[in-house]
Amino acid sequence: MTQFLPAQTRPGRLSLAVEDPYAVSSFYQDVVGLDQFGYTESSATLGAGETPLVELTDGSDREPRTDAQAGLYHVAFRYPSREALGAALHRVESLYRLDGATDHGVTHSLYLTDPAGNGVELFVDQPRADWPENEAGEVTMQTQPLDLDALRAAGEPETDAPAGTTIGHFHLEVTDLAGATEFYRDGLGLDISREIGDMARFLAVGDAHHHLGLTTYQERTEPATGRGLDWIEFLTPTEAALEGARERFEAIGVAVESRENGFAVTDPDGIGVRLSLADQ
């Protein structure tokens, strides 16, 4: 495994273009439990503690995303405790609808869909010592039913997600797994943590189970031009890491646009990707 990025590198924010930012922001406040950091007629910013996590922008001038287009499978919000995920379950069940719930071994996860059709995962990591491994010592993920009664009992309804709630990973539906892997591994600098044939790759920094999922199960054939995911962000702690990633992208022919605290690029499916300097 080649570690291009410091182990402290992590997901930051994402931006979604939606038809009605106000309606969608209510979901992220009331169900996910985020705080509203700012709101205008055409945008909203939400987060937890002092950390912005979601930007919603007015995408009413765009066509809806089609079934052929690449884009977001889900954004996964990582809660800092089982109690916080239990509280989220109370909010989901009282205010919304649950699509599914899974014990992955590495996480306990709830799945739902926001009012704009974007997939959302709410999860808590399991202790590292309990992560399942194969005979080669590689971390694996399972798909088992989650005990919702036990999770419900662990948490009480809360108004907000607690400080320490972050985005744990992004899961993207891509048109070409090899091209996406080159971009995110050889350019951005994530490491492959798990592969499922020629259908899925999971990438991470450090010893995380994954910070990014790339899958082709959905057989997407067109770029992400409709409503939905605009860009995702990763945060890294050093200027040297930023410069190294910039050089890697330029070496594989990706145009780099400088920003105040980092840079922006566009992946092969038209999804924006930002690498930004993390607050120290």
Q: Helicity level, as a percent range?
A: 10-25%
Q: Which oligomeric form is depicted?
A: single chain
Basic shape: globular
> Mind summarizing the main beta sheet?
9 strands, mixed
CATH topology name, in short, is 2,3-Dihydroxybiphenyl 1,2-Dioxygenase, domain 1
CATH architecture: Roll
Beta-strand content bin: 35-45%
Strand arrangement in the largest pleated sheet: 9-6-7-8-5-10-13-12-11
The arrangement of helices and strands along the chain is EHEEEEHEEEEHEHEEEEHEEE
Instruction: List the total number of helices.
Output: 5
Classify the secondary structure makeup into a structural class. alpha+beta
Task: Count the beta strands.
Answer: 17
- Residue-averaged pLDDT, rounded? 94
Stretches where pLDDT falls below 50 for ≥5 residues? none
CATH homology superfamily name: 2,3-Dihydroxybiphenyl 1,2-Dioxygenase, domain 1
Number of domains: 1
Instruction: For the record, give the distance between the C-alpha atoms at the N and C termini, rounded to a whole number.
Output: 27 Å
Computed over alpha carbons, the radius of gyration is 18 Å
Descriptive account of the structure:
- The protein is of the alpha+beta class.
- The chain has one domain: Roll (2,3-Dihydroxybiphenyl 1,2-Dioxygenase, domain 1).
- The chain is 21% helix and 36% strand.
- It is globular.
- The mean pLDDT is 94.
Summarize the structure.
21% of the residues lie in helices and 36% in strands. By secondary structure, the protein is α+β, with helices and mostly antiparallel strands. The relative contact order is 0.20.
